[in-house]
Amino acid sequence: MLLPLLRSHPLLHHAARLSSPRTRLLLRRDALPLPLARSPSHPPIRMAASSGSNASSSAPLPPPPAVVHKSKIRFCPACGSPTKLAIPDGDEKMRAICSSCGRVHYENPKMVVGCLVEHDNKVLLCRRKIEPAYGLWTLPAGYLEVGESTAEGASRETLEEACADVEIVSPFAQLDIPLIGQSYIIFRARLKTPNFSPGPESLECALFALDDIPFDSLAFSSIIVALRMYTEDVKSGSIKFHYCTINKRLGASPSDLRSFDIDSHIAV
Predict the structure, then answer these.
(1) Does the pLDDT of residue 199 top 50, yes or no?
(2) Which terminus of the chain has a lower count of CB atoms within 10 Å, N or C?
(3) Coiled-coil segments, which residues (predicted)?
(4) Taking Cα atoms as reference points, which of 49, 16, 4 lies closest to residue 243?
(5) How confident is the model at residue 242 (pLDDT cuts 50, 70, 90)?
(6) For residue 132, which of 217, 215, 254, 251 has the smallest C-alpha distance?
(7) Cα–Cα distance between 261 and 247 in angstroms, integer?
(8) CA distance 114 to 101
(9) Distances from the Cα of 47 to the Cαs of 1, 32, 192, in angstroms?
(10) Which of 95, 112, 106 is nearest to 177 (CA)?
């Protein structure tokens, strides 16, 4: 099981020391704990660690190759002139620089916020009515808006996607996805009233018992990871706060279980 292995790793005893031996969780279609799945087709979670007696015999995956980000800003937002890619003086990375006015345009990661809504020992999921991942299940989540806190944004997204009025209970996970420039913050929440229904971006909404979560039909790697961690926590009797990075492979679909692994996992 995932949690006994994680507890033995030095990272969890020294959560503030990111330089300690790191833990890599490998999510692959050929290995997910069957107690968390309803058929052998669900992949178990396999762990490989750089040290420790509980490490899997499988060798860790090599680190992903460095990705050079190419700016998608082709025209200057200030004057409309074409941009060119160049390294500004005093910088180290390629940036989009206006060929006319010389302004440097930076691109920063986007923050996605959402809620893991708990009700009667079940979790609330929405089936997407929009692309990407049309028809697949997800936690209610979306991009944070300017002017709102992460908790406010998570509550708003839950109201928009599931017509559910919720109360935030606690932060549950921060999941960074460097390749696509996204950072997820997921909160645990509870329904203020037992009412929910599909919003404009959802085909349907439903409460799922832990053993009934449709892991084969989840929309995104972040949702797969968050729900795996939550399921393990609940079954262990101790819900923690999780941080990790999700390393995705270039060109992989958002919901492909073989398209990513987890790095630098900390649970406190």
Answers:
(1) yes
(2) C
(3) none
(4) 16
(5) very high
(6) 254
(7) 5
(8) 39
(9) 10, 10, 38
(10) 112
pLDDT in tens, 112-143: 999 999 999 999 999 999 999 999 999 999 99
Tokens of 4: 């006994």
Average pLDDT, the chain: 80
Question: Is the pLDDT reported for residue 3 higher than 90?
Answer: no
Rounded to an integer, the average pLDDT of 228-240 is 97
Q: Which amino acid is at 174?
A: Q
> What's the per-residue H, E or C state across 169-217?
EEEEEEEEEHHHCEEEEEEEEEECCCCCCCCCCEEEEEEEEHHHCCHHH
Strand partners, 218: 137
Quote the CA–CA distance of 44 and 36 in Å, as a whole number: 8
> What is the number of residues in the chain?
268
- In the numeric block, the tokens 């660690």 are attached to 49
Statement: the pTM of the whole predicted model exceeds 0.90: no
pLDDT tens figures, 145-171: 999 999 999 999 999 999 999 999 999
